[in-house]
Amino acid sequence: MHPQLAHDRDRLGSLLESVRLHAARILDELDERAVLPSAPPPEAGPLPDRGPGLAGALEAFAERWEPALSASAGPRYLGFVTGGATPAALAGDWLTALWDQNSVTSLDGAGQELERQTVGWLRELLGLGQGHSGAFVSGATLSNTVGLAVAREWLGEQKGVEVAEAGAAALGPVRVLSAGAHSSIPKALATLGLGRGCLVPVAALPGREAVDPAALERELAAADGPCVVVANAGTVNTGDFDDLRAVAALKRRYRFWLHADAAFGAFAALSAGHAALVEGLDTADSVCVDLHKWLNVPYDSAVQFTRRPDLQARVFRNSAAYLSSAAGTPDLVHLTPDNSRRLRALAAWFTLAAYGREGHREIVERCMGLARALGETVEAMPGLRLLAPVRLNVVCFTLTEDPTPERLAALADACRQEVFMTPTVYAGTPALRAAFSNWRTADADVPRIAAALRAATPAGAQPGRAGQT
């Protein structure tokens, strides 16, 4: 054994204790750390020939890289609908690396049974029925890709074609209907060989990002054969929801696969005041849920739910003599693109086991309350204009005067030490968006965000309300 490896092995307990103490210091400082520090990334250095071991690597990382890392796990990182890691989820993630399981087959330990139990807990938490099975993937993009891959196989089933064998070309033209699909949807369609061009935009309700059911029915009536509908349960700009019950009701008259992109919106089910937004989610044929958002588990973690695991296994079947069969209840290796992956379910299992439904309901409801508070603050602040009502956990706003991308970027940059917000365009207007989904974010953070915005917003303008032009 290499002497440095042997040294670290023999002193692993004390080395890990030093890592624990280092991590604890970072966590203690996280709430006050600059959200986007001004330190530039270090210049790349050469690969060492003789490494310094774990202690030396930790020292080099702390000195060179940590000053430039964002506080994305902290309370005022409000971009990309990013959660943090609850204490239990962090512990679960550490143990995931410790056990180092590749839990995709029943031939190797209990890992995939732990994943199945965790999927069952999530199904219960989100109000999905027993008809939905699920598997862990890396994030919402892959969850949407897997869901649409199963939809592609369903389209083939309707036409008497096994797409997994014959290829996407055997389907002929495909139509995927959606109002304001997330950017991961055309990316998935390109990956699956269906092409971005098959995505057909459907009109939204006036002043909304939600689909107009009458417009959707017109598109379905005009379709030549079965198609796919992608419904939104929580849009990234404004947290808007399609009427899932109205969309699902159209299946009585038209043949289509209903895929629900509920990456973060699915967690509205935990709030009594917002659960109506996701009524009908259980009727979807496939559902995307992203866990490193509102469940607050570390990257990367999401689940793909579907009612047709048989079609899912047809797509992702991995035929090898050393693996189990895809027949019956297929092992996880047959349900996602991965043949190897870490036991992502363990972090989710830990946070669900530790805090239960009540703990995660409190996180969701607190985040929604903080978003409403910031929305009210923006409405009253001279120079800023709220572009849409705060429906869930996203605040979308702009400048009242000359809201160019450049001026909004300058505003966000001026606030970057205190809060991180991402740019967007809503109804043709350049804007900023703040998404509340981190378990650490508290009442005291909203005044700090408001103060940063107030200091950076050009003076002299009047406040604006949602919908003003």
UniProtKB/TrEMBL annotation:
It comes from the Bacteria. InterPro entries: Aromatic_deC, PyrdxlP-dep_de-COase, PyrdxlP-dep_Trfase, PyrdxlP-dep_Trfase_major, PyrdxlP-dep_Trfase_small. Keywords: Decarboxylase, Lyase, Pyridoxal phosphate. Its cofactor is pyridoxal 5'-phosphate. It holds the Pfam family Pyridoxal_deC. Belongs to the group II decarboxylase family. This is Pyridoxal-dependent decarboxylase.
